[in-house]
TrEMBL record:
<dbReference type="GO" id="GO:0016491">
    <property type="term" value="F:oxidoreductase activity"/>
</dbReference>
<protein>
    <submittedName>
        <fullName>NAD(P)/FAD-dependent oxidoreductase</fullName>
        <ecNumber>1.-.-.-</ecNumber>
    </submittedName>
</protein>
<feature type="domain" description="FAD dependent oxidoreductase">
    <location>
        <begin position="3"/>
        <end position="324"/>
    </location>
</feature>
<dbReference type="InterPro" id="IPR036188">
    <property type="entry name" value="FAD/NAD-bd_sf"/>
</dbReference>
<dbReference type="Pfam" id="PF01266">
    <property type="entry name" value="DAO"/>
</dbReference>
<keyword id="KW-0560">Oxidoreductase</keyword>
<dbReference type="InterPro" id="IPR006076">
    <property type="entry name" value="FAD-dep_OxRdtase"/>
</dbReference>
């Protein structure tokens, strides 16, 4: 007997399934393409917060999820033996001009209050080999940002689910309460059925470099994320493309991303590219995750729209969706509900 069926084995689907299974539900995950086949099978894995100002439900939710992440991923690793590559090592960003420096210092103060002493946002002097070039001589260092390897994280979730008796299948019959976490396909189905754009797919391209900086913080510079992974690779990403011909092809736009990363961080200059990746990420119209009762499937639920922050949001998304699906307790912010996309 199945208590919960999750349609879709991306990061939202697998995370919701894991928390439901951990709470004692019999869970089945169904995805015809297999786990992590879409954007969740990417390679970057930058879990970075929004700036600490103009606080709202989305930023508060993301903050709580980033704080929860270490315990969440430790539990996944212990249950299934997989290694998601999680580490909270922070992030460094250059400060480009005097106005940016003043703003960064103001945010330093707001982070002290908004981040509740659980993480810091600091302005520091630039320096060292693993530091982006900064016109002002200063950088922002936050201690909230973390990293994981998306592919390895999905594999670790599958291992944890199976160790807990859950099924992860390519085909099967849905039973019990059903959660639809089908990414771009789900947003397209919703849009077609209602005649308005509930969301769309945005292509991203990224690369892995053969460069070992596994204990270093991630860098955001030149509009590019540089994320050292625990396996001795360093990820560079990513683009945001609304128009594209081939969703799985990389091209000159990725070459530009790599060049900008190397210009911002000279330590990467000679590192060879070991992998190029492209995929489509589900972006809801509001850019927030879409959680709650499904707008099309009566009695079912939706968890979609992770876009660029899906892995960072996943621990909290999984918790509130399990509350709703298993216990009927609704703690979903108003801005995340399906009706907010109309």
């Amino acid at each position: 007997m199945t208590d919960v069926t999750v349609m879709g084995a991306g990061i939202f689907g697998l995370s919701v399934a894991w928390v439901c299974a951990r709470r004692g539900a019999w869970v089945r995950v169904i995805d015809p393409n297999g786990p992590g086949a879409g954007a969740s099978g990417g390679i970057v894995g930058a879990l970075a917060p929004h700036v600490p100002e103009t606080w709202n439900d989305k930023k508060a939710f993301q903050f709580e999820s980033l704080i929860m992440a270490e315990g969440f991923w430790d539990g996944v690793a212990q249950a299934g033996g997989g290694a998601p590559g999680y580490a909270r090592l922070g992030r460094i960003q250059p400060v480009m001009d005097a106005a940016g420096l003043a703003l960064a210092r103001a945010r330093e103060e707001s982070a002290a209050a908004l981040w509740q002493g659980k993480a810091a946002w600091r302005v520091e002097s630039a320096g060292g080999a693993w530091c982006p070039e900064s016109p002002t001589g200063h950088v922002i260092r936050d201690t909230l940002s973390a990293r994981l390897h998306p592919r390895r994280a999905c594999a670790a979730l599958v291992a944890a689910l199976r160790s807990n008796g859950a099924e992860v299948l390519r085909e099967g019959r849905a039973g019990g309460r059903v959660v639809w976490a089908t990414g771009v396909a789900g947003l397209e189905e919703w849009s077609a059925a209602t005649g308005h754009a509930a969301g769309n797919g945005v292509k991203g391209q990224a690369a892995l470099l053969d460069f070992d900086a596994r204990d270093a913080p991630q860098i955001f510079a030149g509009g590019v994320h540089v994320v050292p992974h625990a396996d001795g690779t360093t990820a560079i990403g990513s683009t945001s493309e609304r128009a594209y011909d081939d969703p799985a092809a990389t091209d000159a736009q990725l070459d530009d991303v790599i060049a900008r990363a190397r210009a911002a961080l000279p330590a990467l200059a000679g590192a060879p590219v070991s992998l190029r990746w492209a995929g489509i990420r589900p972006r809801a119209r509001s850019r927030a995750p879409v959680l709650g009762p499904h707008p099309l499937h009566a009695g079912a639920f939706i968890a979609n729209g992770g876009f660029k922050i899906g892995f960072g949001m996943a621990p909290k998304v999984a918790e509130v969706m399990a509350d709703l699906v298993l216990d009927g307790v609704d703690r979903i912010p108003a801005g995340f509900r399906p009706e907010a996309e109309r």
